[in-house]
Amino acid sequence: MRVLVVDAANVVGSRPDGWWKDRASAARRLHETLLTADVAYDRVVMVLEGQAKGGVRAGRDGDVLTVHAPKDGDTAIIEQVRRAVDAGDHVTAITADRVLAARLEGLGARSMSPSWLLDLLG
Predict the structure, then answer these.
(1) Going along 1-122, which residue ranges are E strands?
(2) What are phi and psi of 111, to 5 degrees?
(3) 3, 35, 43, 103: least buried by Cβ within 10 Å?
(4) If we measure between CA atoms, which residue out of 64, 108, 69, 67 comes closest to residue 86?
(5) Who's near 120: CB < 8 A, 6+ residues apart?
(6) Is pLDDT at 16 greater than 90 in this prediction?
(7) Is the pLDDT of residue 14 over 90?
């Protein structure tokens, strides 16, 4: 399977559209975009942290799995990537955090920037 793991905070934070005023609504907009996007992935995992968790309930909605990070987003992202790679999936992770990207690549994932995802989503 092809799995896309999204660091939602990094994607939302990459556009200065006022997201900081309402993080939950920004997360909801990203979730809705991912639900309706025509992407070449079998599963999309969107990881939310902090106030953004109030915008989308945890769980599966179509091909999108929303994960609420119990602590920090990076730890939850690493866990999701590790599970998918261990299952034999081809994983692409979206993050702007270079240190996190290097860790994910060390696990076997391909790492891409938020702008790459936003371009893909149109």
Answers:
(1) 2-7, 43-48, 59-61, 64-68, 90-94, 110-112
(2) -115, 135
(3) 35
(4) 108
(5) 37, 39
(6) no
(7) no
pLDDT of residue 20: 80
Structure token digits, residue 19 = 């997201």
pLDDT average, residue stretch 76-97: 98
Instruction: Say if residue 96's pLDDT is above 90.
Output: yes
- Architecture (CATH level 2) of domain 2-121: 3-Layer(aba) Sandwich (3.40)
* AA letter at 43: R
Which pLDDT score, from 0 to 100, does residue 9 have?
95
The three-point CA angle 70-41-63 to 5° equals 55
Which of 44, 57, 58 shows the shortest CA–CA distance to 7? 44
| Closest-CA residue to 28 (of 16, 19, 37) | 19
